[in-house]
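In response to reviewer comment 3 from the previous cycle, which asked for concrete evidence that the modeling workflow produces usable outputs, we include below a single protein chain processed end to end. The sequence was submitted unchanged, and the resulting structure tokens are shown without manual editing.
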Amino acid sequence: MPELRIDPIIGRRVYIAEDRAGRPSDYSAHEATGRVVSSAPASPAAHPNCPFCAGNEAYTPVAELTVSDAGGQWQCRVVPNKYPAVRTDQPVEGAFGAHEVIIESPEHLLDVTRLGLERLTAVVRVYRDRLRHWAAQPGIRHGLVFKNSGCDAGASLEHIHSQVTAVPFVLPVVERELAAAERFYGSQGTCIFCDLLQRELAAGQRVVASAGAYAVVTPHAPRQPYEMWLLPRTHAARFDQLADGAIEPLAATLLDALERLQAVAPGCPYNLLLHTAPFDDEHAASYHWHWEIVPRLAHEAGLEWGGGVHICPLSPENAAQRLIHHDGTTATT
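The workflow returned the following structure tokens.
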């Protein structure tokens, strides 16, 4: 029996309809269900036609930032997007802003979990530092870090990379969250995300991991099977203000969540999205930065595009249990 759920932050409506996973189709298993049944593809050490591989640096714009290892080999490069959605040479009232690509490995890796903790920690530090850089630039008000992993998630190149955009306005999805957070803070005197996280941890039904400074939960009203939110357990509004000592624990939690996703759905395409407050202190008390991991396992179609209502064929409670027990262990508080 389908169940209508409403997201407690912005009121997004989602039908949880697990019976739909068995509907008939004239298409292949992948096309019909969105499920990826093959293992993640192998990752060759280098690819001669890939502009992101070591040795092919001439095919990208000059790097804005490079992180190198002890031997001088770059491990992460930040370059201007060659095909940007916004540009710093545009008028502020036009398509003004910044659009960068973070190349996360000199090797032709297809899965960010192949980086391991040390190298992913360096990448997460770059995420923070690029937002810090753009927060200091005149005319820039808000930033977004995102990863499109896999063709079905919008990636045009398979080599692991993320993107940063910085714009002179608050991005609409976060603007809706900010409005909801301000209303809740005005009436309850606390952060709506802190309240949500406390309730999730107390109930335990949708908690994937909660050890240490961060927690991972499957949201009450997910858009996709195995959708996860990663939140700091201590209130914090702006990701660009993340302390140095908080980066490695965050990378470890993120790595664990993505490994769990790949364990239950090998080769799964997904979007990794950072929601953070604008580059000001107006929302310091009410907003809470968080990462959203949104797999692309169920196709969005008429109801989603025409009506703005999502259908998820897997409940977040069942998703959490599968993510927790994929290796026979559970995370502890």
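Residues 116-135 form the longest helix (20 residues). We consider this sufficient to address the reviewer's concern, and the full set will be provided in the supplementary archive.
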